[in-house]
Each structure stands twice: as C-alpha cells, then as structure tokens.
Amino acid sequence: xxxxxxxxxxxxxxxxxxxxxxxxxxxxxxxxxxxxxxxxxxxxxxxxxxxxxxxxxxxxxxxxxxxxxxxxxxxxxxxxxxxxxxxxxxxxxxxxxxxxxxxxxxxxxxxxxxxxxxxxxxxxx
Length: 125
Ligand SMILES: [Cu+2]
Fold this sequence. Notes:
By secondary structure, the protein is an alpha+beta fold. The protein has one helix spanning 2-21; strands at 27-31, 37-38, 43-48, 58-65, 75-76, 81-85, 88-92, 100-109, 115-124.
C-alpha cells in the first residue's frame, strides 16, 4: 500500500501537467471592456491568458443598435484587420466605429488547438 501511494503521487503530478501547459485561453481583459461606453474607437484589443495561434483566432463584430434605433437587426461590421501576437488580439478598424451598441464574438485557439469562444457587448457614444 505504501509503495503504491508513493508511485501514484508522481504519476498524478504528470497527468496534471498537460492541462497546465495547454490551458484553454480565457479572456482576461479587453479594450473597450465588456459593458462599458467609450469614445469612437479605431482599435480593439483582447488580452487572453494563453499564447494564441494567430490565424485561428479572431472576432466577429455586429452593431446591435444606433442612437435613433435601439436593438435593430445585427449589422455586421466588416473590413477590419485582426492580428494575434502572443496573448493579445488586436483589431484595427478601417474607420472609427460610429455611435451605437455592439456585440463582439471572439474565438481563440491556443496550444491544444481547441477553439474557445465568448462574447461581450459595449457601447460607443
Ligand atoms: Cu482544449
């Protein structure tokens, strides 16, 4: 029994390692931050907990309302460029986002190749 227990401890520690080395990316912070109102941005940044696989990580952005038309049908925003470098995904917009409400859906892939998704809303005033 004692011998088994001694063997089991290192084996369990090794089992735990791959999870630590290939953790799923979590969104740690973003600019604009979720549920905040900001002046018209030309750039969005999302910072994750893990190094991203660039080409597999990105966002979709839709406008969900304008000052005169709250909660309109989602209007996709196109033409932006997103670049993942290390743990940060930077989205450069062709022009400043107009006033309105937005929903941002992100997808992020780190070392284990699993696609992790999330979303948040923000307002441009
Ligand atoms: Cu995974």
